[in-house]
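Re: that chain you flagged

S.,

Sorry for the slow reply, it's been a week of failed gels. I finally had a moment to sit down with the sequence you sent. For the record, here it is as I used it:
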Amino acid sequence: MSATTRSATTIKVLPEPAGLPEPLAEPAVGELRLETVLGALSDPLRLGIVRKLLLESEEFDHSCGWFGLDRPKSSLTHHFKALREAGITRQRQYGLERRSHVRIDDLDARFPGLLDLVADWTPASR
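Prediction finished late last night. Pasting the structure tokens below so you have them in one place:
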């Protein structure tokens, strides 16, 4: 596993393993729109999901159970779909389970520095 220091925090960039299932439908890099990405990240839960993937990934991709979120499955499905459709995450189907990872290279190409801001974000305490 490698980690790249990019800002005050360390974003984990894990190599893509061979033999992965095809990704679910997502926008191409050239179709990523800043307003769509920022709209998806405007929800604190989704921002937290992306931040956790950037800083704490243990594997290349993760199922929604890995996040430990106490939300109904339908709510989590909605949030993960919003992130994928905005082009922030890539999802793959593994049997009955979907796993996600952040499209780091694609987002860096379109919006340099954005992921550093997400990684540096501090969630509000409750």
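What I noticed first: Residues 1-6 have pLDDT under 50 and may be disordered.

Talk soon,
D.
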